[in-house]
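step=predict obj=1,3-beta-glucanosyltransferase n=495
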Amino acid sequence: MVAVALHAVNASNIITIKGTKFFDSVTKDQFFINGVAYQPRTLAGAMTDPLARPNDCRRDFALMKELGLNTVRVYQVDPYQNHDECMRALEETGIYLILDLSSSESSIVRNNPQYDINIWSKVRNTVDAFKGYSNTLGFIVGNEVTNDSKTTPASAYVKALLRDTKAYIRSSAPRLIPVGYANNDDPEIRLQVQAYFNCGPNEERADFFGINLYEWCGDNTTYQTSGYVDRTADIASYSIPVFLSEYGCNVVSPRAFHEVKSIFGLDMTSTWSGGIVYEWSQQENNYGLVQINTDNSVTLLPDFQALKGAMSSIHPAGVNMDLYYEQRPHSACPAITATWEPSANLPLHPSSETCDCMMSSLVCVASEQALSTSDKLGKEFDTLCSMTNCEHIDTDSKTGVHGKYSFCSPTQKLAFLYNQYYSSTGQSQPSACHFNGMAKLSTPARLSDEGCAAPQGIQTKSFTKRAAPHASDAVSHQEKPALGLTAIAALAAFI
């Protein structure tokens, strides 16, 4: 074991995975994530893209360097903004990025999960915006989506998104960028979630796993009494890197961060790959390290000073990549039970070409009225599914049966049902394509939808590793909803 330079890293060096650990691909030193959750909001609590505000980035990243941090986790960005300056500022201060791919307006909803072309388009655009930066450490496809035994079916949709994101990176990125999931550590299903995202073929398995852990609370808590020792035992035989994707209980405030000594010390470094403290800026939930003032200045809060003190004495011992050979088997998929319901047969890859092809065959489609009244579509689906067969648009992660158009947009699926019902009447009554103005007749470009359901999957390339450009060389990219239940109840839209 060798001491790792945790506080001073060259963020232009790509971080890679070997076995259960992260490594600097150039120095071959083991890399421990020492990070902070970074998602400043407006005074009204609205989300902004923190990596599209260069002045704020330079201000904040300099302070993070003072803390000795090497990673930020960002939960939401706007892929159509320019991120070059902030990514360059991260690189210059030795900091890597772990980026969540979902957003408040485009994500898999735990209580009514769907994975469609709109979600996939947003995720793909976000990957495109950040895949060229050498200090993009990894992507997270979901954060606490399944958070109890009642929402386990949602995990199948997240895993399908993970599968497609990995395939898309392999097909389009200059290098392999790890893709993972962050879990809320619900005691009833924590082991099933861990196993589910690490089972099946490699194309479907997570590259890393994050756990949002808030068990270490109060000044008198220890590694043994906090539950950290038990969580370490849970992942002792896990085959991919695991880190604390959020930590820092604030039951007692200001926080003392006694857990830092264990996270980056002998208690945990042989099993864990570091952690990300929650969070950078002060919000109503009182987790902030700093207060961002109305004049855009920053006030350091007691938690900042406490974390700085805790970080100053840590020197984790790691291994050299070339001397590390451990390889563990991946997990077996969890059994289907009353508290764990998702099938291993994942939802289909969303194909806009398939949906467009289907739409071009329809005689009866959704009208402009339907497009402008999205809040009423749920009732419209209920009505139509009582009148015609919905199997081609339905998706059921419990049975693993997914209709050939289950990934199309809501209005496209609605149009398919309108047309199916209209066709069942023999197309002799124009009134059968009305539905109180929600449907209208159209002239199709195809005689039928035969052949529209294309083969599934993303065509991937034979991959040869090559260096990614540094953030300083990147081309401009113009073109909890899930911060964690402990932290944030909901996200607002971008301003």
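step=describe
The longest helix spans residues 154-172.
step=end
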